[in-house]
């Protein structure tokens, strides 16, 4: 167990340096004269140039210089110093404003996935091969197969613009009601996966020996399902939902962009549209860290929750 | 008959018979007295599965559409007149005209080519990387496996969309083929891990088989055993995974084009058209709905096809 966590931690560190190195190499390295780029069209005096070269260690050339500046970037990233966007705003401030909105949206999506996905999954698992089971399977396949760029605009058009059941866009400082439709759209994918996972897990556990024992003891079916089966079969679902929370916090680029929700994904969406390089890189770097850490937490949680799983 | 050949045969037959085909005559594998093989069982299951036939029909239709778009529409997708902006249906344009005054339906039909091309090439690239890595890791085991498996873990830990955004922002060329190549490259580079794991595990199973031992005793070298004996027997699961991956690559390409960093202007792509349609949805909805439907159906078709074949081949799920 300890060895597993240690190995997983080392793996995450590797993945962290791997991805940040790629991000850094692709965006900052080898893009002409950064000092002139900073000054724009204005001339740069030799004194300024010397100062900036000294400050950012631009005089170190070759592989050594590259890694020197790369570690500078990683250090800044870990200290939360993300620099400024092209519009002159501090990226840390932008993220600080955007994060609460994204978290609220992610929690709504997660709630949708739990309330509908897990409940329907348990029912489908108990009544395998029934009409309910088969229709949920087909429905989840549909949801899993339809990309968000189709689902989000169509939901916005039908439910927001045409039938006007929900506000079509959220705008700044969105209410719970305004976040509900985007939350459902965002959560539908996790809903489908959670449903399938719960169904498979419940169906598998229903065939386990301890269920047969419980039944032969004369327990009622309701008690068997709630007390015995659910506790065992929700382990993979809980860990999946944990991963999903991490994904939802970082993966809402399309949904937030379409519904105009001022969260992290929306800022990334806007950064890509307006070709704001520093903003995109800053946000992506942070999101990669969030993604890696949430994956790590969930993997460890999984090992703690389910002692049946053996790691070498 | 190996699993792979059966899958291929299944697809060939299905393609010949078409979507409306009646259940075939019982000349399939193992229909006679001998016990049915796994492949025969799977084919029997597939034949009865309506989802399999529907998705297969869709795949065939969209493939034809990508190859011969002229058959499906008489209008050119680039024949645009601003005076027809958001005009209703007329003259072969059965879904009317979009914001630029182009035929909505015709653009959706011509958009099939880029989507399928990117999806197929990315799946091909993914397949090659996955086969090489999975084969080496599974066949040689030991430190080769340890190193390659860790590489897989690390690549699997990279979020696809975020990494694709960073990689594609670097591509400044606007030429049609450069952008298609870049999108394919990025998707293949980030998407090969699942398939590689599948190949690795099936290679591990295959290399323990008696026929491998027999081939080795007859003096066959490593490369011959890998190429002639193990590869054909571990392809089937990989092909199923790749079919599903093809669908998700098409969705990923559309998402990147939607964001404006995938395919660009002279190339007609659904993602871009959905984005334009989305912005003008209050004025006209069909330019949003038509490419959305095309995209959703294509992605669904590949995912459902792969899913149906996998369900049929995986006895655990029965």
TrEMBL record, chain A:
Keywords: Cell membrane, Membrane, Transmembrane, Transmembrane helix, Transport. Pfam families: BPD_transp_1 (PF00528). Its main location: membrane. Residues 99-302 form the ABC transmembrane type-1 domain. InterPro entries: MetI-like, MetI-like_sf. SUPFAM superfamilies: MetI-like (SSF161098). The chain crosses the membrane at residues 12-30, 105-124, 136-155, 175-197, 224-243, 249-269, 281-305. The keyword Transport applies. CDD domains: TM_PBP2. It is found in: Cell membrane. It is a multi-pass membrane protein. Belongs to the binding-protein-dependent transport system permease family. This is ABC transporter permease. It comes from Micromonospora parva. The lineage of its organism: Bacteria, Bacillati, Actinomycetota, Actinomycetes, Micromonosporales.
UniProtKB/TrEMBL annotation, chain B:
Belongs to the binding-protein-dependent transport system permease family. Signal peptide: none annotated. Its main location: membrane. Residues 112-306 form the ABC transmembrane type-1 domain. The keyword DNA damage does not apply. It is found in: Cell membrane. Residues 1-34 are annotated as: Disordered. PANTHER family: ABC TRANSPORTER PERMEASE PROTEIN, OLIGOPEPTIDE TRANSPORT SYSTEM PERMEASE PROTEIN APPC. InterPro entries: BP-dependent_transpt_permease, MetI-like, MetI-like_sf, OppC_N. This is ABC transporter permease. It is a multi-pass membrane protein. The keyword Cell membrane applies. Keywords: Cell membrane, Membrane, Transmembrane, Transmembrane helix, Transport. The chain crosses the membrane at residues 51-74, 116-141, 147-168, 180-199, 235-263, 284-305. It comes from Micromonospora parva.
